[in-house]
TrEMBL record:
The name this protein goes by in its record: Phospholipid-transporting ATPase
Domain P-type ATPase C-terminal: from-to ranges: 798-1025
Species this chain originates from: Zonotrichia albicollis (White-throated sparrow)
A single GO molecular function term of this UniProt record: ATPase-coupled intramembrane lipid transporter activity
GO-annotated cellular components: endosome; plasma membrane; trans-Golgi network
Length: 1033
């Protein structure tokens, strides 16, 4: 993935030439053939003991290479019926018996289409190659011993703000506290920093170069997709006795994460396709919109009509002579029934729609990354939205503290602050005690024997919240105070809290606001500052991190001033209810706070004796060294401690919603779009957010999809399995659904999205919206993906078909641009088909009149100019048409519902355009045959001129709202035709078209072909107006 530079011993990051960056990558991490994943032992500094080779560690997002580009593009173009038909048509003209005209009349349009496609593909491949090259050229330092061979597992040195190039085990850090932070937004979608701990044995070595001198190895499990768990051990054999340490997720540095603090050294475990991030990512697929599939279906119908007309013509000749050759000639003669210009017009229209979206000042920053499916935005039936960072800002605000008999809200936090101040000021430090000791210890111990005062209860709750977390205060220079001085004096202005959960940061910030401040923390200790400025020191004995299975986290600390050992725990009410002592208010108050949209945590504690803790520690260390069933054994030991804990308080935190989320969701609902939430967060939190965002009403049913136990196959909550029948029945339901995956894996949401897309094929269009790297595969799998640029990075927006900066922009993107794109393309496609059917009808009439001869009516430049310079500009100007203003479309989202039913492009509208084409083509041809005088060339002049004028008038009939470019296009096309008549003497009698006879005949034929349609349009608008016409009047 990245280049590697070698560093003898502990070297600084070398500044080598870029030439190193690519060539060294594969030398350190050799490629290998595909093999089944298996556990491995990685030796430090002993390449001769390497057990297996590493996959090549490079990023390659290109679809083609230099040799496969041309055949690949051609194959992808001609594998579809539409393009293959025109290729066979053009090739047939090399056979003399089948030739109907000049070769360029068939090859020039086809060549133009292929050239445009190849240029577009080449530009995209070049951009992709440059992006991949930039990533693959990043330079990293490799730790080596002088004279040591360069093969084998690499110990890489990664600096702050560098992206981790491979999955590694964390060995050393330059941070004083012996830990580092990671930013994992591109891996799991969470913006908060994660704390990582190095292997204790290697962190204690004097220098990093000693890593290659010791005899040690890492045993790691086989590669898998689970980004939240890891099982392994670190063994050092040359110590006495040998050292064995258990390795867990806290000791890992996964690829695609970013080092947020210090410089780290890690040993590479997995590379290439074995990376956790790669295994959780699906290959992007080439998306074809529902609109394009519908047009392709209509094209097949036209091909069927082409075959039927050709057979009828030959049958009317009674299959005389070489009838099979006549069938082929008629197939070529009526080939205009399927317009080759249809694909070109639609592709150019998509480019225009994309340009209009990017230029919309009301949704700034919107980017169209997939210009092939803008019409999909007008067909969205289901929106699958991420929660954190998409609907919410991922910013937590502390709202409520509940002690059972009393609750404190935002308006009463000053009372909590006064209780904390009173505790630390009522008793003065006793003789013999340091001023650093907490003055309230004796008072608290006395109060517990009798009856706790309210102040002591509040103090116990606040202290528990200030200690039970994984938050680390980080001090940064503010321009006045440098980092070292700020860290030494605990400067408030320089302190920033970092944690893996925004909930915990909000809780710690709240304890600071009420007087108990977290000022320091490392792997083994925590420092709190009381309101009087005293520093309270606590030793961290054990930490039990939060997991989605346990739904709780705990910490065991020793108070340095008293020696008391206390076990603090906080977690979800569903699990804490069975852990805390019996009470009669927990369930009721948790329900009340949840109904207010708050994220509720239950806080409890338990005092331990020294003997109890020593017994627990021995059992806990033994369980952590297990390789098999480690999680189960560790959980069993911890659960033995989680009994009869004292309930302290409930906390309520609110995740603030994105700007205008509620009106946007209401707009989508009114438009007939069903919104489903997909989340890996806690179920209670997801439900709270759904109700807070008004995604559901307070009384509306919520269906929840979970995972089947021991599998990653989603199922409907309850007895019914996840299958096509169940899914299809729920797709027609008006209920609101939550897809809930407690132990989140990106691969699970991929399978959910794929299952929904397959079950709803050709019925609904699914559009996932997300903002994190974990949403990428889901976005790529669906029909149309929208990425939101947020705090979780830009990976989702870069991989999405459409990228927006705020969720509220989704409303305008769908209601205005999606609607316009679909309606415009529907009108454009049907008009192009009408244009081709008109000239094909005239050809059929002409052949019928002249004894079913397979002779073309128009030849040479006439047939090419008809669909290009004579009619192309007016027809293409339909991409600027709109039925209502954008403000009206946003005000009345119900207009979007008509699009969900596919009414702008349906078999009904297609049949109407077919009948119009047959009528107009017949009128023009029969009129020309009846009114021509003596020469055949007069038929061509009258019919072709009437055909051009009819098409220009039909464009004017189709337009809903005139744009100045439409008028220019009409006049320009008419001027081009009049000017070209001088050069078309080979096909048209120039002297005849200057006569009055020609003018009145053309006028009569054109009026008869168009006037009835104008009358019908007026009557329809008068007596059966469309839904939007009332809004425009």
């Amino acid at each position: 993935m990245q280049g590697v530079c070698e560093t003898p011993g502990v070297s600084e990051m070398s500044s080598l030439m870029n030439a190193w960056s690519v060539c060294r990558c594969c030398e350190c991490l050799r490629c290998c053939g595909r093999r089944d994943p298996r556990p491995r032992s990685v030796w430090l500094g002993h390449p001769e003991k390497r057990e297996q080779r590493y996959p090549r560690n490079v990023i390659n997002n290109q679809k083609y290479n230099f040799f496969t580009f041309l055949p690949g593009v051609l194959f992808n173009q001609f594998k579809y019926f539409f393009n293959l038909y025109f290729l066979l048509l053009a090739c047939s003209q090399f056979v003399v018996e089948m030739r109907l005209g000049a070769l360029y009349t068939y090859w020039v349009p086809l060549g133009f289409v292929l050239a445009v496609t190849m240029i577009r593909e080449a530009a995209e491949e070049l951009r992709c190659y440059m992006r991949d090259k930039e990533v693959n050229s990043q330079i990293y330092s490799k730790l080596t011993a002088r004279g040591q061979p360069q093969a084998g597992p690499a110990a890489l040195l990664t600096a702050r703000n560098q992206r981790v190039p491979a999955d590694m085990i964390f060995l050393r850090t330059s941070e004083k506290n012996g830990s580092c932070f990671l930013r994992t937004d591109q891996l799991d979608g969470e913006t908060d920093w994660k704390l990582r701990l190095p292997v204790t044995c290697t962190q204690r070595l004097p220098t990093a170069s000693d890593l290659l001198q010791i005899r040690s190895y890492v045993y790691a499990e086989e590669p898998n997709i689970d980004i939240h768990n890891f099982v392994g051990t670190f063994t050092r054999e040359d110590s006495d006795p040998p050292v064995n340490e258990s390795l867990s997720i806290e000791n890992t540095l996964w690829a695609s994460t970013v080092i947020a603090s210090g410089t780290v050294v890690g040993v590479v475990l997995y590379t290439g396709r074995e990376l956790r991030s790669v295994m959780n990512t699906s290959n992007p697929r080439s998306k074809i919109g529902l609109f394009d599939l519908e047009v392709n279906c209509l094209t097949k119908i036209l091909f069927g009509a082409l075959v039927v007309v050709s057979l009828v013509m030959v049958a009317l000749q009674h299959f005389a002579g070489r009838w099979y050759l006549q069938i082929i000639r008629f197939l070529l003669l009526f080939s205009n029934i399927i317009p080759i210009s249809l694909r070109v017009n639609l592709d150019m229209g998509k480019i225009v729609y994309s340009w209009v979206i990017r230029r919309d000042s009301k949704i700034p920053g919107t980017v169209v990354r997939s210009s092939t499916i803008p019409e999909q935005l007008g067909r969205i039936s289901y929106l699958l939205t991420d929660k954190t960072g998409t609907l919410t800002q991922n910013e937590m605000v502390f709202k409520r503290l509940h002690l059972g008999t009393v609750a404190y809200g935002l308006d009463s936090m000053d009372e909590v602050q006064s209780h904390i101040f009173s505790i630390y000021t009522q008793v003065q430090p006793a003789g013999g005690k340091s001023a650093q000791d907490p003055p309230a210890v004796k008072g608290l111990s006395l109060a517990t024997k009798v009856r706790r005062s309210m102040s002591s209860r509040v103090h116990e709750a606040v202290k528990a919240i200030a200690l039970c977390h994984n938050v680390t205060p980080v001090y940064e220079s503010n321009g006045v105070t440098d980092q070292a001085e700020a860290e030494r004096h605990y400067e408030d202005s320089c302190r920033v809290y970092q944690a893996s959960s925004p909930d915990e940061v909000a809780l710690v910030q709240w304890t600071e606001s009420v007087g108990l401040t977290l000022v320091g923390r490392d792997q083994s200790s925590v420092q709190l500052r009381s309101p009087g400025g005293h520093i309270l020191n606590f030793t961290i004995l054990q930490i039990f991190p939060f997991t989605y299975e346990s739904k709780r986290m705990g910490i065991i600390v020793r108070d340095e001033s008293t020696g008391e050992i206390t076990f603090y725990m906080k977690g979800a009410d569903v699990v804490m209810a069975g852990i805390v002592q019996y009470n009669d208010w927990l369930e009721e108050e948790c329900g009340n706070m949840a109904r207010e949209g708050l994220r509720v945590l239950v806080v409890a504690k338990k005092s331990l004796t020294e003997e109890q803790y020593q017994d627990f520690e021995a059992r806990y260390v033994q369980a952590k060294l297990s390789v098999h069933d480690r999680s189960l054994k560790v959980a069993t030991v911890i659960e033995s401690l989680e009994m009869e804990m004292e309930l302290l308080c409930l906390t309520g935190v609110e995740d603030q919603l994105q700007t205008d989320v509620r009106p946007t969701l209401e707009t989508l609902r009114n438009a007939g779009i069903k919104v489903w939430m997909l989340t890996g967060d806690k179920l209670e939190t997801a439900t709270c957010t759904a109700k807070n965002a008004h995604l559901v009403t307070r009384t509306q049913d919520i269906h929840i999809f979970r995972l089947v136990s021991n599998t990653h196959r989603p199922c409907l909550k309850g007895p019914r399995p996840w299958d096509r029948r169940a899914v299809r029945s729920q797709l027609f339901s008006s209920r609101v659904f939550l897809f809930f995956c407690p132990n989140f894996l990106p691969q699970v949401f991929i399978s959910v999205t794929a299952a929904l897309t397959q079950c709803a094929a050709f019925l609904f269009v699914f559009c996932p919206a997300g903002d994190g790297g974990n949403d990428v595969s889901m976005i790529q799998e669906a029909d149309c993906g929208v990425g939101v640029e947020g705090k979780e990075g830009k990976q989702a927006s870069l991989a999405a078909d459409f990228s927006i900066t705020q969720f509220k922009h989704l409303g305008r993107l769908l209601m205005v641009h999606g609607r316009n794109s679909y309606k415009r393309s529907a009108a454009l496609s049907q008009f192009v088909i009408h244009r081709s059917l008109c000239i094909s009808t005239m050809q059929a009439v002409f052949s019928s009149v002249f004894y079913f001869a397979s002779v073309p009516l128009y030849q040479g430049f006439l047939i090419i100019g008809y669909s290009t310079i004579y009619t192309m500009f007016p027809v293409f100007s339909l991409v600027l048409d709109k039925d209502v203003k954008s403000e009206v479309a946003m005000l009345y989202p119900e207009l979007y519902k008509d699009l969900l039913k596919g009414r702008p492009l349906s078999y009904k509208t297609f049949l109407i355009w077919v009948l119009i084409s047959i009528y107009q083509g017949s009128i023009i041809m029969y009129g020309a045959l009846l009114l021509f005088e003596s020469e055949f060339v007069h038929i061509v002049a009258i019919s072709f001129t009437s055909l051009i004028l009819t098409e220009l008038l039909m464009v004017a009939l189709t337009i809903q709202t005139w744009h100045w470019l439409m008028i220019v296009a009409e006049l320009l096309s008419l001027s081009c035709y009049i000017a070209s008549l001088v050069f078309l003497h080979e096909f048209i009698d120039v002297y005849f078209i200057a006569t009055l006879s020609f003018l009145w005949k053309v006028t009569v034929i054109t009026l008869v072909s168009c006037l009835p349609l104008y009358v019908l349009k007026y009557l329809r608008r008068r007596f059966s107006p469309p839904s939007y016409s009332k809004l425009t009047s």
